Amino acid sequence: MEITEEEFARAVNSRSKFPIYETMKKAVIGVAGLGGLGSNIACALARSGAGTIIAADFDVVELSNINRQMYTLKHLAMKKTVAIKEIISEINPFCNVIAHDVFIDEKNCTEIFGGCEIVCEAFDNAQSKAVLVNSLLLSDKKVKVISGSGMAGFGRANDITTRTISERFFICGDMKSDVADGEGLTASRVMVCAGHQASKAVELILNG
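RESULT FIELD:
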């Protein structure tokens, strides 16, 4: 079924007191990592009417990803960047997804994400998290960073919260659970944390 952007905008705005879509359409949001957090964040932002999503990941979809990531069995062995563009095109065809099939490091992260208003950090590697956060916050850009920390296991979803560290840095998660502790990863808690990150991004955009 084909729809117009005007129809999509009306649907996004249908239960809001003010025009969400018109503001979200102007937003440029980065998603660093397209795994459990990133794939869910990207799709939530697309559903919210984000105009441009700059996404980066170097990995492929594996069967072990299906239990918590947005991909389906038909995406197995596809590059995550390719798969997420396909998925988002079916959610919001008016969202411009700029995908970088690359490993993010201190040499390229500001180049890739420097034009974003907000970047959602969604890596599963502590060193990569630190590199991205530090590089973006220390750059001369005014980009805000929303990071994820602690969503492993199957504990209380209410333990996952959003914390303000500074006016440009926010952390979502329980700040303690770790897959390395053998607790595993379940879709429900990963999606709750991803929801916090996407929700904070939308809040920052709509509040200007």
